[in-house]
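Lab channel / #folding
Pinned by the channel admin:
"Please post every new chain as: sequence first, then the C-alpha cells as a reply. Keep commentary short and put observations after the output so the thread stays searchable."

First post following the new format, from NK:
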Amino acid sequence: MLGLLFAHSASFSLAPVLLALLLSLGSLSYLYFRTQNTLFQKPYFGINVFVVSFLIGCFTLLIHQQTRYPNHYIHLLSSKKQAHTCELVINEKLKNSNNTIRYDASIIRIDTRNCIGKTVLNIDKDSFKFPIKTGSHLLAKGYLFLTKKPNNPSQFDYGNYLKNKQIYSQFYCQSKNCILTKKIDRDIFYFADGIRTRIIQNLKKYKFNAPELHVLVALILGQQQDISPDLIKDYQYAGAVHILSVSGLHVGFILLFITFLLKLFPNTKNAALVKCIITILCLWGFGVLAGLAPSVLRSVAMFSFVALGNFLKRSINIYNTLAISIFIILLFQPAFLFDVGFQLSYIALFFIVWLHPLISSLWTPKNKISKYFWDIVSVSFAAQIGTFPISIYYFHQFPSLFFVTNLIVLPGMSFILGLGVIVMLIALCDSHYSFLYNTLEESIYILNKIISWVASLDSFVFKNIFCSIGMMLGTYLLIFSLIIWLKKPNYQKAIAFLISLIVFQIIWIDSKVTSQKTNEFIVFSGKKKNIISERHGTNVVLHSNDVTPKNWKEEAALQNYITENGCRISKTSTLKNFYSFQTYKIMIIDKSGVYLKNIHPDILILIDAPKVNIERLFRFWKPKMVVFGTTNFKSYVTQWKATCSKENIPFHDISEMGYFKI
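Reply from TO:
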C-alpha cells in the first residue's frame, strides 16, 4: 500500500520502476537461494522483501494509469472547445443528475481516431427517448470537458474522485445526436445487467411500490442509483447507510443460503470439491450481479477464502484472510485504495475482528436473547470506533444513535434479505406470489419508517465537525495504543498510550495555531450570487448582498469552507466598492458602474455586468489582476478578456477557473 500511495503522489515514468523491480527481484532470489549465513540473510532479506513489495505497488498503479498510454483520448483533444463525434461503450448506469441521464462509458473512437479511456456520458433528460443497456455501442456528437478542480475551497473534489476511477472527462450530448448501433459487447457484465433489468421490470410489472423497490434493489443488487436523496440522508443520519451497500452482512447471508441448499449433496470428498466450486462461483456471480463495488469485492474475496478453508478442513486466520484479499484486490484494482467505501469496509471489519472480543467481554449475558442483542451492540460499537476518525474526516458528522438503529433494524434484516432473495428469484422467472411480494414490500416500508423516525431526531446527529488529516491520524494512534493497553495492560503500554495522547494534543494545538495564523480573502463561485469572505484566523467576515446571517448555512460552499477550516462567521455585511486586505487594494465595480477614480487598485473585481469601458479604466489604472464574477454576461466577459490580453493584464474568470483567493 505504501508503494501505491507513493506512486499516486509522485510523478515518474514506468521504465525506472520496472528496472528497479527486476533488480530487487534478482537480489531477493539471490538472498533466498544462495545465502547460507542466517545472520546475514535475515535483516537483508527482510529489507529486500519490503523493497520488492513497495515497487510492486508502484508498478501496479503505474500500469493501470491509462493516461500514460499515447492513445488515450486526452492526448487527442485540442485546447479549444469543439464538438466531437465519439463511439462509446456503456459500462454501467450511474445516478442521474437534475438535468441529465448519466452513464459510465469507454471511448473507443474520437472523430476518426481509435483511442482508449473512460468518461461520464451525460445525455440531456428532456431529449432522452431510449434506455441504453450495458455493453451497447453508441455514436454520439457532443462536447468533452476534462475534469477540473472544485469551484470553491473545501468543496468535494469530484474531478479527483473520477480520476481515481480512471475517468478524466465528462461528455455532454443530446439524445437526438446519439445513434445506438447494433454492436453489443456481450461480456459477463452485459448478462448481469440483463438479469438485474429483468428482475426490476418484472417487479414493476407486478406493482411493487417504487420507494420500497429502490431500497430492495440496493439491498440485494447493490444498485443505489434510484433511491431518493432524502431517503439516503435519513439512512446517513440514522447511522444505517451501510445497510444500503452490499457488504459482509449481505454476502455472509448469501453464503449461508448457498451452504443450506448444498446440504443436499452427499458428504464425500468429490462432492465437497463440487460444493466448494459451486459456492465460490455463486459468490462471485452475486458479486458481478451487484456491480463489483469495493465493499462487494472485499466481502466476496474474503468469504471465498472462508469457503476454500472449509473445503480444506483448515481453520481460517481472519487477519491473513484480510491481508490476502486486500493484496489480490489492489493488485487488479489499485485505485480502490483511494475509494472511501473500500477504506471504511476494511477498517470496520478489522476493528470488528480485533476489538469486538474486548467489548464483548465487558458483560456475559445469561440467556440467548440478551446475548444476541449484546452481540449486535458490541459489534456496532467496535465498527463505529474503528470508522469514527475517518468518517469525521470525510463527512464531518457523526450519528450518535447508530447503536439504536442497529438494535432495531438488524434483527429484521435477515428476514428481509432472505425473503428478498427468494422474491428476486421468483421475479427472474417472471412469476408472481402476492403474499410474498406484499410481505416484503410491507417489511421494507416499515424499515424505511423506522430509519426516518431515528433520522428525525436530528439533535443526536453531530454535524460540521472540524477534523484535519493530522487529527484523524492522531486519533487512530490514540485508539490503537489504548486498545493494545486494555487487551494486555502493562507499564510500557501505559506509557505508549500517554505518549500517543500527548502526540494527539500536539497535533490538535498545531491545527488550532495554524488556523489562527491564516488570513485570506476569497471571492466564491456561486450561481447568480456574489459572495466574498474575509478571514482573520478563525473569524470570517462575510460580504454579500444575497446572503444574510439567517440563510448563510444554506450555502453549501460557505458551510464546507467554515467546517473544513474550523472557522465561524463573526459578522455579515453587504458588499462595498472598496476593500483593503493586507497590502492589497481591492476595487469592486457592480451594475451601478460606480467606482473611486482617485484610488488605484491592485485587484479589480467586476460583478453584475457593469456597463463600463475597462479599456478606458486601464488608461489611469494598471491593476495586477482583474477578476470576473459569475454574475456577468458572457459577452461582456469575452470582451473584457480581450482587453486584458491586449493590455497584458492578468485576469481570473471565476466561471471557468473557480474561486479567487488572496
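NK: The two ends are 37 Å apart (CA to CA).
TO: also worth noting, The mean pLDDT is 83.
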